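From the methods appendix. Each design record in this collection lists the tokenized structure first, followed by the designed amino acid sequence. Records were kept in a plain field format so they could be parsed without special tools. The example shown here is representative of the layout used throughout.

RECORD:
FOLD TOKENS (242 positions):
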């Protein structure tokens, strides 16, 4: 059974269709990458999954529950999803430890000690054990983004949504964030990510989806999409990014 099913999703902004009937299934442990030119609708699709946008037509089902049903509580859905954006969005006035423990304590009602124990474990796992007491402005961009990912993981999400998480990093810092994504994949985390890093996309994706003007034009395993795309527009896009 699929973990997430996107079925015929449409989204319009000011009469302009940004998503045009998107169908996508994500199986447990699957890593799905969304690629496509800027403005093709990748971020909007992730935002619809996280209920940051309402869909205009179609449905999204998570773990068998239709989350686009207006009666569904948004917070109950967001508890099950981790989302990380291009900008790090850490709380600047809180230490790394407090950033990571805040949501588990408030949302999952974890006791302070338990939340901190879990946070220390995650920080150690991702090479940030010595940064627990640091404030975000003392960390490099790569470290901040790793903390943002850890903060999302601390909620033990069913699904991680990663939107261009390496785009605002200097090239030498991209590597350390990609390493985190690799490790998440190895640990079996289900993920949907958007990226301009075609190398990592090819390496870690089980499925690559090419979006063009809000249409999911092509979907398949990376070996197929990258080497033998069916659609001329996919070929053109890939030529422009390689
Ligand atoms: P991508 O992530 O692939 O670059 P986006 O999903 O951010 O694309 O954007 C798709 C289109 O939707 C763009 O034309 C963008 O300008 C438009 N768009 C996104 N969010 C909004 C919004 N809140 N209001 C109006 N237009 C939006
Ligand atoms: Mg985007």
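DESIGN:
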């Amino acid at each position: 059974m699929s973990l997430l099913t996107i079925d015929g999703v449409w989204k319009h902004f000011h009469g302009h269709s940004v998503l045009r009937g998107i169908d996508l299934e994500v199986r447990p442990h699957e890593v799905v990458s969304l690629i496509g030119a800027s403005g093709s609708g990748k971020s909007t699709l992730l935002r619809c999954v996280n209920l940051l946008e309402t869909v205009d037509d179609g449905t999204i089902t998570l773990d068998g529950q239709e989350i686009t049903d207006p009666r569904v509580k948004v917070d109950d859905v967001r508890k099950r999803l981790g989302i990380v954006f291009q900008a790090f969005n850490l709380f600047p006035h809180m230490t790394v430890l407090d950033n990571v423990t805040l949501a588990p304590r408030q949302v999952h009602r974890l006791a302070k000690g338990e939340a901190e124990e879990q946070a220390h474990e995650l920080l150690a796992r991702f090479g940030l054990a010595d940064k627990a007491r640091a404030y975000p402005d003392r960390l490099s961009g790569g470290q901040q983004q790793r903390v943002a990912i850890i903060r999302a993981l601390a909620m033990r999400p069913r699904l991680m949504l990663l939107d261009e998480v390496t785009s605002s990093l200097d090239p030498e810092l991209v590597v350390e964030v990609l390493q985190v994504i690799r490790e998440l994949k190895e640990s079996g985390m289900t993920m949907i990510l958007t990226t301009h890093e075609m190398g990592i996309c090819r390496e870690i994706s089980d499925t690559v989806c090419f979006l063009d003007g809000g249409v999911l034009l092509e979907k398949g395993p990376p070996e197929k999409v990258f080497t033998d795309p069916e659609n001329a527009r996919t070929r053109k896009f890939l030529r422009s990014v390689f």
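APPENDIX NOTE: The two ends are 35 Å apart (CA to CA).
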